């Protein structure tokens, strides 16, 4: 068993337009395209937590000077951004963001370009050792069955990691994961400026309030123990009330429940370290290997997070090195994902793309540049005007993009096009969504 220290190998995560998604920790200073984030605590929360322990903390005079300096440069200084009129202790810092679904898809495209066979909507049913290899039986949702032979299996099933060990491979494990539900709500953006907010609640948890899809706001997340099937996760009324309550504490005119345009939940498969508080459960990851010198291995991953996914993958391959003596060294730190070879900043790339397609709306060019990078040229092909884009489904969604997603990104079901590969679903009316489903 090996534990990966997530806090020691933290990599900055960038949008597609950056030089690469996951920065090597030694190169974090080169991070660009950062968004301002204002971290706010109410005076009440400060009083509830008590005075700061001076041992190891900043000297009182220096701390006061730092607060004054941060207040003078914070985006709320001199501007009304809708915050309540209470004493606030805050600071400004920069952070990075990534569209997680795009990151997953681009890793799959990269794997396919390097020889991998991608099998979406295919379930691992049974695995058994046969001499020096594994035999893995898989069922597709179209009724097909495939059996493949492999020298090793990697179990990266997340919340289903134990199901694969026991139900598919027929093995036992001393490790386990603890499922924690995190939910978000999406509302119309309700403050001025491009900054995000990090709000500290009275329970000492923090909530992010981020600009999202230009005119929307993404708010979350919750931290709740989850004991049901991971595939059935959904936001609860109590979670919605919790998030709205935090907004009421900090904003004069916070959004109401009726203004929520979308909500979603996810399950974090955290390595179970027996912590009492879900928020205190380790975000580290643990590897477990079933195998020996002449026995093909099953490597299972417990825990992990998107911030360190590339580092985790490198360490997983290191654990498999005894079975693959000719394995090459790690190479992903300096290799952009497909479409990330933009050369220069994102704005420079988007401007070049706009010059090459002068008759297309600038907002549409920005959308293609942000989601597809240099692969936008493959998507657009001979397009020169809006007429060439094909049928318009609503928002920024046209037929040529739907064709690209079907041919290059394994999109098949309506949610693949509207919610998983893109966020078009947030900008289509119910009638437009039904019309697209009929088109498919």
Give a quick account of the main beta sheet: strands, pairing sense, barrel closure: 8 strands, mixed
Count every helix, treating DSSP H or I runs of 4 or more residues as helices. Answer: 12
Helix content: 25-40%
CATH class descriptor of the largest domain: Alpha Beta
Distance between the termini: 47 Å
* Residue windows where pLDDT falls under 50 for at least 5 positions: 1-35, 43-76
Q: Count the strands?
A: 17
The rough form would be described as globular
Number of domains: 3
Folded structure, characterized:
The protein has 440 residues and is α+β, with helices and mostly antiparallel strands. It has 3 domains: 155 residues, D-Amino Acid Oxidase, subunit A, domain 2 (D-Amino Acid Oxidase, Chain A, domain 2, 2-Layer Sandwich); 131 residues, FAD/NAD(P)-binding domain (3-Layer(bba) Sandwich); 94 residues, Orthogonal Bundle (Helicase, Ruva Protein, domain 3). 28% of the residues lie in helices and 25% in strands. The strands form 4 sheets. Strands 2, 3, 8, 9, 10, 11, 12 and 13 form an 8-stranded mixed β-sheet that branches. A 4-stranded mixed β-sheet has the order 1-14-15-7, sandwiched between helices. α7 crosses α8. The longest helix has 14 residues. It is globular, with a radius of gyration of 24 Å. The two termini are 47 Å apart. 28% of the residues are buried.
């Amino acid at each position: 068993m090996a534990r990966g220290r997530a806090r020691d190998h933290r990599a900055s995560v960038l949008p597609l337009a950056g030089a690469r998604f996951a920065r090597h920790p030694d190169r974090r200073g080169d991070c660009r395209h950062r968004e301002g984030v204002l971290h706010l605590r109410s005076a009440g929360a400060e009083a509830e937590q008590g005075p700061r322990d001076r041992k190891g903390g900043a000297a009182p005079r220096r701390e006061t000077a730092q607060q004054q300096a941060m207040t003078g440069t914070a985006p709320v200084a001199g501007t009304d951004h809708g915050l309540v009129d209470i004493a606030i202790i805050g600071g400004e810092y920069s952070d990075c963001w990534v569209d997680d679904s795009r990151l997953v898809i681009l890793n799959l495209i990269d794997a396919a370009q390097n020889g991998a066979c991608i099998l979406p909507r295919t379930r691992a049913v049974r695995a058994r050792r046969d001499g020096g290899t594994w035999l893995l039986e898989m069922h597709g949702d179209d009724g097909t069955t495939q059996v493949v032979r492999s020298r090793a299996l990697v179990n990266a099933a997340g919340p289903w990691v134990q199901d694969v060990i026991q139900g598919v491979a027929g093995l036992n494990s001393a490790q386990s994961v603890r499922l924690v539900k995190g939910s978000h709500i999406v509302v119309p953006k309700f403050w001025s400026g491009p900054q995000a907010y990090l709000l500290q609640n009275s329970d000492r948890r923090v909530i992010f309030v981020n600009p999202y899809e230009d005119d929307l706001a993404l708010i979350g997340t919750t931290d709740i123990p989850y004991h049901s099937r991971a595939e059935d996760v959904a936001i609860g009324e109590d979670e919605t009330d919790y998030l709205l309550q935090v907004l009421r504490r900090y904003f004069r005119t916070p959004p109401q429940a009726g203004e929520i345009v979308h909500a979603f939940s996810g399950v974090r498969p955290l390595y179970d370290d027996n912590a009492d508080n879900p928020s205190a459960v380790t975000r580290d990851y643990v590897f477990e290997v079933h195998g020996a010198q002449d026995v093909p291995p099953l490597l299972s991953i417990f825990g992990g997070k998107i911030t360190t996914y590339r580092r985790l993958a490198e360490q997983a391959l290191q654990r498999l090195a005894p079975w693959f003596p000719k394995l090459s060294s790690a190479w992903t730190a300096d290799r952009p994902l497909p479409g990330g070879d933009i050369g220069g900043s994102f704005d420079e790339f988007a401007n070049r793309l706009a010059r090459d397609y002068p008759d297309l709306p600038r907002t549409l060019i920005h959308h293609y540049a942000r989601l597809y990078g240099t692969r936008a040229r493959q998507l657009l092909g001979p397009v020169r005007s809006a007429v060439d884009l094909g049928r318009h489904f609503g928002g920024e969604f046209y037929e040529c993009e739907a064709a690209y997603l079907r041919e290059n990104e394994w999109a098949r079901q309506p949610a693949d096009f509207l919610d998983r590969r893109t966020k078009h679903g947030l900008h289509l009316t119910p009638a437009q969504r039904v019309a697209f489903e009929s088109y498919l």
